[in-house]
From TrEMBL:
It is found in: Plastid, Chloroplast. This is 30S ribosomal protein S16, chloroplastic. One of its GO terms (cellular component) is mitochondrion. Keywords: Ribonucleoprotein, Ribosomal protein. InterPro entries: Ribosomal_bS16, Ribosomal_bS16_CS, Ribosomal_bS16_dom_sf. The keyword Lipid metabolism does not apply. GO terms for molecular function: structural constituent of ribosome. Gene3D superfamilies: 3.30.1320.10.
């Protein structure tokens, strides 16, 4: 099974990559595909929506943290 997760990069200035990763892998493990990034300092976001929708069509189990992130960014409505 595959999840969409936030993978932390950067030591003192965190930047997060949004990746598709196997559920058995740890957070910093090998990712299957990079589908975007999030910079909390500048509040900058990039999402590769066609790739994300492709994973969703394959019936992925989204992680709750990623759902909260999408709601904050306004991509999903309540």
């Amino acid at each position: 099974m595959v999840k969409l997760r936030l993978k932390r990069c950067g030591r003192k200035q965190p930047i997060y990559r949004i990746v598709a990763i196997d559920v058995r892998s740890r957070r910093e493990g090998r990712d299957l595909r990079k589908v975007g990034f999030y910079d909390p300092i500048t509040n900058q976001t990039y999402l590769n929506l066609p790739a994300i929708l492709d994973f969703l069509k394959r019936a992925l189990n989204q992680q709750e943290q990623f759902m909260i992130f999408q709601r904050r960014q306004g991509f999903l409505r309540n």
